[in-house]
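FAQ
Q: What does a multi-component entry look like?
A: The components come first, one per line:
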Amino acid sequence: MDEPADQEAQTELELALVSKRYQLIDRIVSQVIRRLGSGLTLSELLDGILLHRFLAIPIFLAVMWAVFQFAFSVSAPFMTLIGDFFGWLGGMASTVIAPAWLRSLLADGVFGGLGFVLSFIPPIFLLFIALAVLEDSGYMARVAFIWDRLMTRIGLSGRSIIPLLLGFGCNVPAIMATRGIEDEQSRLTTILINPLMSCSARLPAYVLIGGAFFGAFAGAAVFGMYILGILLAILVALLLRRFVFRGEPAPLMIELPEYSRPTLKNTATRTWEEGRIFLRKAATILFLGALFIWLLSTQPWGTSPADSYLGKLGQLLLPLFRPLGFPWQAVVALFSGFMAKEIIVGTFGVLYSISQEAAIGGAIAQSMSPVSAFAFMAFVLIYTPCLAVLGAIKGEAGWRWATFAMGYELVLAYLVALLIVGVGRIWGL
Amino acid sequence: MRTKSIAAYSLLLGLIYLGMGLAEALGKYVGIQLRFLPQDIFGGFVLVVIGGVYLSTVRILLQGYPEGLAGPLVGSGLALIFATLYLLVMAANGLSFVLGDLERWEVLSDLRPGIWLALPSLLVLRRARQAHQSPR
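Then the predicted structure of the entire assembly, as tokens:
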């Protein structure tokens, strides 16, 4: 027997085994349990709607919108409080410390850069709280099931949805989670589209730009980035399966847990497990990154950020980004984001020498149009993954595919941003 | 009999949610401007989805099938989740006003339909749960 036919027979056998197993379970349950009330369990009832052919995806979109509203709108005053605190610390440092370089280092480098990054703790933790509640309730497993039909249509395995969902948290463990996908073609496709799933590291940049330009619609703009990422992932997956990785994906077999009420302990544990990754990064790579950016933005000593090494780098690369309407500060922020995407906001903080999110948003709003700002958000979503993700792709798929991912995402980011700016101009925005 | 009364409630709530959702999402384009109705496409979409969930099982409920309880149960659950979310956003806006981030803040303008429509949804949820748990 040839290999695809053999695989198909194996799948059919597994499906038949699962089906028989559940028939047996149902027979035993009907003999030993007498159900009161409607005769259906609560999970069976809820699944009638939450897995409904037409309602399931609109409900999923509504739930995800709620998640981002919760993370963005509810966290706003707490971000202000953290920003104000670091602004106050920077002000204290400016008045107490005499040497100009040390004053600048503490006020602009440490309190300006790191303080700005730390102000994004509230939306990140609120996002993880919401995702933990969905996971604990049993809804996340349904999400995999809901999307399976679409996954198969775009040439991915139903198992691909788990790494793709994990990608919303961090792409590194998500790419490692593709090891569970048996079909190699589906696995490689899932790895290559995974960075398009908007990880939490990109959230601070969205929140900053969204808040500065889109006011009451900031939550919708941020939500739009997640939808754009999903749509692009679908498009890229279709292209990859059509031209690079040919063949049929394997079907999804998943056991749906009963719905349950999330517990405070589980939610807190999950939130902490995910959130501490951000805190660890903030204390190490983001802190060092902020100091590095401060150093480059103040040297040669005494010059303005525009005349510093960093400013010169931004101006050198600016012609490439002029069609997109990005200022040099945004170009530098994108460049520093190669290291880790969270550094993007820290870079803005250092370049504008401000630690309050609202004040930096105001400064950025002076230098970019709303359409370019939206294009910038899209660029942040799509362009080259951070170093850690590239390392994970290299580990799972090799250098060849890591280089491919870096290249295609950079080109795709530029094209999508150009398209947004072009459409905006046609509409006179 | 009980499923029929729940069907009537579901039908009424479903139509209200649907109408409010369409007005919230499309009001800007068709010239509907009401004081307590924000112009928000995504917020309107959410109300339309909740309305759709309520309406999806009305026919099955009228026929007396308990499977139809899924509509009011999920619809009311979603209504309560969004009402809680909007109340949290309202509290956050109040805090932002106190901190000086917002120049103006009117409590009444934050009282979206998603909040006050949750009150009748709560009653439907209670009835649907009782119907689900009581013997046939």
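Q: Is there any commentary attached?
A: Sometimes. For this entry: The mean pLDDT of chain B is 88.
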